[in-house]
Amino acid sequence: MKRQLITLLTLILLPSMLWAQESVRNIIYLIGDGMGLSSVTMMQLVDGTPTIFDKAENIALTRTSSADNRVTDSAAAGTALATGSKTNNTYLGLTPDGEELCSLTALASAQGKATGTVVTTYLQHATPAAFYAHSDSRHNMPLITRQLASSHLDVAIGGGMHYFVEEYGADVAKSLEAEGKRLATSLEQVAAMNGDERVVALLADYEIGADSGDYLRDATHEAIRILESRGGDKGFVLMVEGSLIDGMGHGNNAEAMQREMHGFMAAVECAVAYAAEHDDTLVVVTADHETGGLGLVSGNADFNLSEQGVEYRWCTTGHSAQMVPVYLYGTGAELINGIMENSELGAKLKQLLK
């Protein structure tokens, strides 16, 4: 009887699951570098009102270990999230044996979708590079820069001009033009583009910089606009990284992390607002790992007080092995559940495109 009931429920639910899977045309993948559950909780306490994370339609957790270490770096974690496969620390887009892996954006591009990335660090950094590069060292900037120039990405917005100048000399625009891409050096130039051209926007020599205000939200908006135009009926995949949350965790600076979190949350709100108006869009928000081992503890042992305050206590200036959250919004949000490896999340997103 129990087996018959399970079979009946499967037959009832399968059509709706398949419909949801088939209707995911766009994926907006937002990654808070170094953002743990404690980072999210801190923002709930600081803002005192429900955050964009509280409005998620579904929630999951991922384990973050790499193929060769229980504590991952951003390259291995980024590769897992981008390709659905675990690899060694410092590796980008390669298996531990050195075989090239296909990323979510590469798969999307092969299907005719438009693809892009927006970051607050340099575009050659570990997490964004995991979506287009193949290297056994995240520090091989000449190789990664060349791979970015020739990549499948239609839109890339962030820093990293220094590495382009080192590789191509003064005429970066001409070098990118040879790869079928147009150089932009300001977000205003990006806003003036209509989607006819592929663009690499290099807005800083290295990082965009800490406390960058509305930059990530505005850049996400422009990237979506261009990708929507370029993808047409096929759709698009966009990866957005709140890159400097991680750096503030390394520095054990809670106030600076709050500023970076606010910038990232604004980008999430931009993506969720788009998904609310486009019922074929899935928004996935997660982290590559947690940084700093942040603890949120009572500021006073006397719990008879109406308010003891909250202290921020850090246990490392490095990464931790904590699980990280996954927040889902829009079409297909119900299809990703439970506790999984970060590579499982990457694999599930690739499966949705298939």
Overview of this protein structure:
By secondary structure, the protein is α/β, with parallel strands linked by helices. The protein has a single domain (24-291, 312-353), classed as Alkaline Phosphatase, subunit A. The protein is 40% helix and 20% strand. It has 13 helices and 14 strands. It has helices at residues 2-22, 37-47, 74-83, 104-110, 126-129, 141-149, 161-168, 172-178, 187-191, 215-231, 245-250, 254-277, 342-353, and strands spanning 26-32, 58-63, 114-122, 155-159, 181-184, 198-202, 236-242, 281-286, 290-291, 295-298, 310-313, 319-320, 324-330, 338-341. It has a 10-stranded mixed sheet, with helices on both faces. The chain has a two-stranded antiparallel ribbon with strand order 9-12. Helix 9 links the parallel strand 5 (181-184) and strand 6 (198-202). Helix 2 packs across helix 12 and helix 6 crosses helix 7 (161-168). It is globular, with a radius of gyration of 20 Å. The two termini are 35 Å apart. The model is unreliable at 5-21 (pLDDT under 50).
Main sheet attributes: strand count, strand direction, barrel closure: 10 strands, mixed
Total DSSP E strands? 14
- The unreliable regions are 5-21
Task: Estimate the mean pLDDT confidence.
Answer: 93
Question: What radius of gyration results from the CA coordinates?
Answer: 20 Å
Order of helices and strands: HEHEHHEHHEHHEHEHEHHEEEEEEEH
Gross geometry:
globular
What is the domain total for the residues? 1
Helix content: 25-40%
